[in-house]
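thought: fold this chain, then report.
action: predict
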Amino acid sequence: MTIDAHQHFWNYQLQRDTWITEEMSKIRRDFLPDDLAPILKKNLIEGCMAVQADQSEKETDFLIKCARNNSFIKGIVGWTDFQSPGVQARLEYYYQFQEVRGFRHVVQAEPDDFLSNKNFCKGVSYLEQYNYTYDILIYPQQLSAALIFVKKFPNQQFVIDHLAKPFIRQQQLKPWKQQLQQIAMHENVYCKISGMVTEADWKNWKVSDFKPYLETVLEAFGPKRLMYGSDWPVCLVGASYEDQLAIVKQFIEPLSPSEKKGILGGNAERFYHL
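observation:
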C-alpha cells in the first residue's frame, strides 16, 4: 500500500492556530479529508496517517472522527498530556479506538531539555504496553536531548518527524548530520522524509538543495526505516503536493523496487501496525 505517513487536518481558528503566521497565509483556512482525498487519488497514494497539529484531546477526538468517516485515513497520531498523573488512564481510554496508532507532542515548541522532563518520560513509558508509537517533533538543537531520550526506551517505536528540521535554507549540515547518525544507531528509531520544503527557501528552492539531507538519512537509517510524508497542507507554503512528492521519488529512483515500496508505504504500514 502507498501511504502518506504524515499530514494534518484542521478547522482553522485564528486564536488557536497561532503557529500559522501571516507569511503562511496560504494555509490560513480549513483543510479537511474532502480536500485531501482527490489529491491522494491523483498521486496514486492509497492511504495516509493523520497527525495532530493542536495540543488537545479535542484534536485527538477530531482526528478519530475523520478516520472513522474516511477509509483512506489508515490511522492517526494523537495527543494526550504525558505529564499528567492520569496519562495511563487516558491511553487505556484511547486503546478502544483502533484508529489511534500513536501519539505526539510538539516538543519543538518546548525548552531544549524538555525530553528529560521526568513526568513526561514516565508518561511515554506507558506507550509500549499499548503498542503505541511516538512521533518525535524537534529542531536540530534538540537532537542531543532526543538521543538521551530514546536510549531510555529501547523497546519503544519512535519516528523522527521532518528529518528533525535541518537548516536547509542555510545549507547547514553540521552538527545535525552527526547527531542524526547517532540517533539512527538505535534500531527502534525511524525517520520521516517529510517537511523539507518548509525548511528550505519557500520561493527559491531547488531539488539539489535537499540531496545532502536525503543522502544523510538514507545512509543513517537505511531504506527500511524511512517513510515518506507530505506534511500537507503545511507543505503548500513552499510547494504543491506533486512537487514535494517528486523530490522524494526522484531521490529514491535508484533504489530497488522493494526499497521504494517500503519508503512509499510499506515501512509506515509496519511501523504504525496498519
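thought: worth noting. DSSP finds nine helices and eight strands in the chain.
final: C-alpha cells above.
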